[in-house]
Design a protein that fits this description.
Protein name (chains A, B): Xanthine dehydrogenase molybdenum-binding subunit XdhA
Strand order of the largest sheet of chain A: 3-5-1-12-9-10-11-20
Structural class of chain A: alpha+beta
Helix content of chain A: 25-40%
Keywords (chains A, B): Molybdenum, Oxidoreductase
CATH superfamily of the largest domain in chain A: Aldehyde oxidase/xanthine dehydrogenase, molybdopterin binding domain
CATH class of the largest domain in chain A: Alpha Beta
Oligomer: homodimer
CATH architecture of the largest domain in chain A: 2-Layer Sandwich
Largest sheet of chain A: 8 strands, mixed
Pfam families (chains A, B): Ald_Xan_dh_C (PF01315), MoCoBD_1 (PF02738), MoCoBD_2 (PF20256)
Shape of chain A: globular
GO molecular function (chains A, B): iron ion binding; xanthine dehydrogenase activity
InterPro entries (chains A, B): Ald_Oxase/Xan_DH_a/b (IPR000674), Ald_Oxase/Xan_DH_a/b_sf (IPR036856), Ald_Oxase/xanthine_DH-like (IPR016208), AldOxase/xan_DH_MoCoBD1 (IPR008274), AldOxase/xan_DH_MoCoBD2 (IPR046867), AldOxase/xan_DH_Mopterin-bd_sf (IPR037165), XdhA_XDHase (IPR050028)
Number of strands of chain A: 27
Number of domains of chain A: 3
Amino acid sequence: MEIVGRSITRVDAVAKVKGTAKYVDDHFVPGMLHAKAFRSTIANGWVKSIDVSKAKALPGVVAVITYEDVPAHTFPTAGHPYSKDPSHQDVADRNLLTRRVRYVGDEIAAVIAVDELTAEKARQLIDVEYEEYAPVLTAEAALQPGIPEIHGGTGNVLGRGGYEVGNMAEAVAESDHTFADEFSTQVVAHCAMENYSAYAYMEENGRIVVVSSTQIPHICRRIVGQALGIPWGRVRVIKPYIGGGFGGKQDTVVEPLVAFLTTKVHGRPVKMELSREETFISSRVRHPFQFRIETGVKNDGTLSFRNLEAISLNGGYASHGQSIANNCGTKFRQQYRQKAIKYSCKTLYTNMPAAGAMRGYGVPQAMFVMESHLDDIARALDLDPVEIRLKNIPETGHKDPLNGIVALSNGLKECLVKGKELIRWDEKKSNRANQAGTKRRGLGVACFNYASGTHPVGLEVAGARIVMNEDGSVQLQVGATEIGQGSDTVFSQMVAETIGIPLSMVHILSEQDTDISPVDLGSYASRQTYITGMAVRKAAEEIKAKVLDYAWGMTDIPAQVMDIVDGWIVYKHNGEKITPLSEIALDAHTDVVHAKPFTADVTNNARVNALAFGCTFVEVEVDIPTGKVEILEIYNIHDSGTIVNPTLAEGQVHGGVSMGLGYALYEQMLFDPKTGKPLIHNLLDYKLMTALDTPEIGAHFVNTFEPTGPYGAKALGEPPAITPAPAIRNAILDATGVKFNDLPMTPQRLIAKFQAEGLI
Amino acid sequence: MEIVGRSITRVDAVAKVKGTAKYVDDHFVPGMLHAKAFRSTIANGWVKSIDVSKAKALPGVVAVITYEDVPAHTFPTAGHPYSKDPSHQDVADRNLLTRRVRYVGDEIAAVIAVDELTAEKARQLIDVEYEEYAPVLTAEAALQPGIPEIHGGTGNVLGRGGYEVGNMAEAVAESDHTFADEFSTQVVAHCAMENYSAYAYMEENGRIVVVSSTQIPHICRRIVGQALGIPWGRVRVIKPYIGGGFGGKQDTVVEPLVAFLTTKVHGRPVKMELSREETFISSRVRHPFQFRIETGVKNDGTLSFRNLEAISLNGGYASHGQSIANNCGTKFRQQYRQKAIKYSCKTLYTNMPAAGAMRGYGVPQAMFVMESHLDDIARALDLDPVEIRLKNIPETGHKDPLNGIVALSNGLKECLVKGKELIRWDEKKSNRANQAGTKRRGLGVACFNYASGTHPVGLEVAGARIVMNEDGSVQLQVGATEIGQGSDTVFSQMVAETIGIPLSMVHILSEQDTDISPVDLGSYASRQTYITGMAVRKAAEEIKAKVLDYAWGMTDIPAQVMDIVDGWIVYKHNGEKITPLSEIALDAHTDVVHAKPFTADVTNNARVNALAFGCTFVEVEVDIPTGKVEILEIYNIHDSGTIVNPTLAEGQVHGGVSMGLGYALYEQMLFDPKTGKPLIHNLLDYKLMTALDTPEIGAHFVNTFEPTGPYGAKALGEPPAITPAPAIRNAILDATGVKFNDLPMTPQRLIAKFQAEGLI
C-alpha cells in the first residue's frame, strides 16, 4: 500500500492552524438573533409561577418563550440510529422547556434578543417561584420509597440490564478462590474546546435549517423533527468544522431548542451558544458508576467465573442512559475466558446533569473495576499481573456467545509482550522488592477490549459519494463527521489508495449537510475508519472499476489487465504506463457518445464488528506524604488492525491517554449534597490536565490485520482513554501496597488512605 | 398528469419577493478585498507604458496587477462544453489582462484594495500612454488590407461557415421569380438586473473557489482552469441565486480574473462587481449582422431556393463568435421546404465589446431577415403572409438533411391558425384596404423555429441526484442553473409527478457547487426543461423503482402491481392504499438488514434534439408624422410541446416578447465612428422598455407532444424573443407600404424613410 499506512499531514491542518476553518461561531448571518436559556437554580422541584414581563419589556428582547409555549410531547436526545422497534428506541423523557425541573441548569424558558448581552440581561429579569424537593444525588436516595419521582412512573429506574452465560453453579464449585470487592467512578465532563453552539433559521418553504457543532447531523435531523413534531425531511442540519466532541455532541443539546425558537420568530435566525459554565452544568457528563464484583479463580490464576453488579447514575434525563451500562457489561464479558459470567445493572435517574455518551461509553468504568480487581487477585495469588492476563485471554477467533462477534484478529497478547519490553517490566519488578522511604515506585498494567461500531446492537449504515473531475481528481463526500479525530484524512487516504491517485487529487468536503451528504449515522463508537471506511472504499472501488471499464472502451485493452497507479492507467503485470487517468476522465466528460462523468453514491450497511484490543503500561512514583503521583513512564499499546495514518493514530493515543490520566488522578464534578448545586463548573476549578501536567506518552501499535475492516483497520478512537486509570491504580498498589477503588485518585484521597493504613 | 402541466407557484417566489434569496452580493466574507479593472480608453492600439506607482501608494491598496503579471497563454471564454477535438474548441484569444487593447473598456490592469471605493480611486491614479490605431467598427473597415490586425494572423476574420443543400442550379431554373434584398441588425445588450459579479478565494489546500453569478458553473470551472493554466479539478465554482443572464452569463466575464487575483494576494477573497456602465461596455453584447438574401419562388408562393449571406461583427474577442453565425444559418434552413438552400457567413473582429451569447443566439437576426423578406415576396406576389408560410412549412417528421434532426412534433401550422384567430386577421385585413391619414394600422406575422439544446453540434450531458429522506420527501440536486427562468420549479414538478409525491415533498437545492452538483453544462440553448429534464426524470424513475422494489420486499406485493400516488403506495389497478411511502422510506433508513436509503445519481447524455416552433402576430398603429409605432395587439403562439407550468411559460413569453419589442423598436448600443467610444452605456440612454412602455402581451400555446422530451416538453426559453421584430416590421409595412430593413425601427429612422418615400 502506497498511501494507506503513511503519516500524511492531516487535510485540515493548515486551515485549522491558520484559523480559516469555519466553525459555527465563524458563520456570520445578518439579522441573527441570540437566545439564552433561563435555567433552574434548584435541583429538584417544579415552577409554581413564572413572570417574564420584565424580561419582555427590555429593549432588544424579541421574544420570551417558556414551558407554556412548547409542545406537550416528549422526545429523546441520544445520538442513536432510529429503530421502528419501540423496545429499541431511546427513552423520550424531555420537553423543549420544562416546568418540572430535574437538575440545577434545567431549561425553563428561553429569551430571544437582538444580541447576546441583551439576552443575558433579560434572562436575569425573569422571576420564578419554585416548589422544591430534596435533591436525589445517590443510588440510595433515588431508590428511597415515597419520594417524588424524577420522572413519574419510573421509580427513578431508567433501565435495567444484564446477562448470564455458562454454568455459574459449576464454575463457583470449581473455583479455588473467590474474591469480591467494590469500586466506584466519578462524574467527569468532556471539556471539548468548542462549547455547544447552534443556530437555526427557516427557509421560505418552511423548512428549518440547523447549523450545529454536532457529531451526528443525520440523527440530529431526526431528533429535531421528533422534538418539534414535524416530518423529518422538513429539517436540514449542517455541520461545519467542530472543535471536539468526545461523545458530548453525539447528543442533541441545543439543536431542538434553537430549531423551535426560530419558528417562534417567523424563521429569523436564532443562535444559542452555551458558555463554558452552561456546558459544564447543562450538557452531558460521563456516568458515575458503583460496582460490586466477584471473581472465582483457580490456583494457577485461571478465571472460572466472574460476576459484576453495576449501578449507573444518569442525571435528570435519559440521554444515552441504560446503553452505557449495557456496553459496560459487554466489554466486561468479551475480554477474558471463563466458565461462567454474569452481569446485572441498573441505571437510575438523579438530580444531576444528564449523563450521555463519552469516549469509551461505559468501558473506562468497566475496565477500572475489572482490571483493578484482577490485579488484586494476582497479588493475592502471588502471580505476575501480566501473566494472569496472558493466561486468560481467549484465542484469536473466539466468538462471543451473546452478540456473535468473532475476534478474527486479537493482538492483545502481543500488546502485553510489547508493553513489558517497553517499560522493562521484569527488570524493574525484580529490583523493587521491599521499597521503603517516602517516594516509592510501582508498575501497573491494564487491558481493554473495544468494538468497532455498534453492530449488532445498533444499525451501521454509512455512505460515501465520489465524483471525478476532468483532471482525474475527485471530490469525496461522507456523512460521517470529522470532529478532530482525523477521519477526513483517513478517508482521503483510502480513496487515493483505492483509486490509485495522489492524495492531492482527493478533495474531501468536510462540511456535512443532511440535504446532500450521504446518509451516515455520524461519529461515535469508534466507527469512522471501520464502518464509514467500508463505504468509502466501496465507492472508490466503484469509481476505479468505472474508469478501467471506460479505459477499456477507449484503448481496447481489457480492464482486467490494467491498473491505476499514481494517476496513470498502467499495465498491471509490469506497471508500464498506458495513458494518464486525466485523459480517461476528460473523455468521460466530453465524449459526444459516451460522456458520463464517473460518480459513485454508495451506502454500506455493515453487519460485522471487530474487537480492538490494547493495554496501558505505566510506572509511577508515589510521594507518600503529599499523595502526589508522578507518571514516570506510560505506554499505550494498541491492536487496532492496520494503522491507516500512524501520526494521526499517535495523536489519538496521546489525546485519549491524557483524558485517561485526568480521569485517574484529577477530574471530577462535585455537587453540593444538600442542594444538588454543581460546585465545579469552570476550567479553573475543574482539574483538566494541561500540557505541563502531561507526561510523555508512548503510543505503540502491534501489527495485526482485521479481515472485515477496510485495509485491515479497526477501532482506535475511544480505546486510548480506557486503561490509564486502572493501570495507574495498579501501579500505585504495586508501589505502596494500598488499593484505591474509587476514582479519581486525588492526593487528598491518597493521603487519607495512607494515613488509615499507617503509611503516614 | 397531476403536477406536470399545473401552474405551481415558483419554488423560489417567496424567497425572491422577501429578499431572503442570496445572490453573490449578499454573501458576506470577512476580509473581502475588492478589485477594479483599469480599462482602455481607446478602442484600438497598445500600451506603450504604464505607471501604477501612484495607485500602489494609495493607502488601502493591496496590489496592482498589470498585463506584465499574467500568464502568456491565451484562453477562450465562451460557455461551450469542452471538446478534445481542436477544430471544435472555442477560439482562445484572450489574456487575463492585455497590453494590446482591442476596444474601449479592454482590461489592462486590476487594482485590489480593501474596499471598492479605494479600488476605484486607485484605478484613477494609473497612468498609461497608448499607441493608437484607427478603430475598426464595420465589416468594410475590418477587411481593409494593410491595417494592424486586431488579432495577429487572422486578417480580422474570426471564422467562416456555411452550407449548400440541394441542386441550386435546378432550383434557380425552376423559379418564376427571384427576390433579393439587404438587411442589418444592431448591437444590443442583455441588461440583466444583476450585473456581473464574482469573488474568489483559495482554500488552504491551494484550490481556488469562485462564487459567481454564472449560468454555467461546470464550464466556468474549466475555463478558469484554462485561464490560470492549472488542473481543472483545482477550481471550484459556486453559483448562488442569480439576477438574470439571458446568455450574457453563459460566458466567463469576471471569473478568470478574480480567480487569478486571489492567487496574487495569498488566497484572500477578492471580489469584482461590474458597474452597470462596465457591464454595458465591457461584458458581452448581441452580434450585429449584415445580410444579403436572395429567394427564388414559384408563382404560387412555393419556395424553390433560398440563399443567405451573413456577416457577423464580433467585437474585440472571440467569445461565442462564429457559433452564432452558424446557428443563424441552421435555423434559416430548418423552417421551410425548398429545393435548394445556401448559406455563407463570416464573423469579423472589430473594436467593439465582444459579442457573445444572447437569448436566441443569432436566430432573432436570422428570422428578422428571412421573415421580413418573405413578407416582401408575399406582397410582391399578392399572397397573404400567413398563406405563403403555411404553404412552405414542412410536414411533421421532416428530417433536416444536415444535422439529422427529425421534427417529431411540429405545431407551426397550428400556431399560425391560432394566431390568425386571436388577432382576427382576416376580418381586419379586409377592412384595411387603402388606409389614408396620419395614423395607419397594419398586421404582421413572423415565424420561427428553435432547437432544444445544441445536439448534434454540442455535447448534451446533464445530471440529477435525488436522495429520499425518512419521511419520503426528497432533495433534488441538478447542475443546471436556475437563472430566473423557473427551471427549479419545473424540475421539482417533474420529480413530484414521476415519484408520485406532493410538490411540497420535493426540496430542490438551488445553489450549484461544482464540487458536488451533478455535472451539467448549464443554462443556455433553451435546454433545461428538455435536456436536464431528461436526467431529472430518469433519476426520479430510478428512485420510484427502488421504492417499489423495497416495498415488494416489505409487503410481498409485486412491484409491478403497485404505484406511488400522493405519497402513498397503492394498488395500480384500483388506487387502493397499501402503506404510506414514509413507512417504506423509514424502513429503508432503519432496517437492520436491508437499510439502504434511496438515492439516484444520474447522468444523461442526450443525443436527440427537438424543434420548437411558433410565431408572433401583431397589430400596430403607425403615427406617420412622429414615426411612433404603437403596439395595439401582440400574440406569441408557441409550439413548445407539453407546457410543464403554464404560468411560468407565460412569464417566459412575456419576458421574451418584451425583449423582442425593444430589439424591434428601441434598443441599440451606438459607438462613435471616429473613436470607437460607446455612446450609450447606462440605463438612462439605453432605451430598455419599462413596464409602462410594454403593451399587453398575449401568450398562447398549441397542444403538441414531443416524444423525445420529458413529458413531451421542448424548448421555450429563447423562442419568445425571436419574432416580435420581423412581425412588427411586417405590420409597419402592412400599414404604410414602407419596408424597414434595419433594426431598430426607431422614430428617427421611420420619419427619415417616410420623408424619403413621400409619406410626409
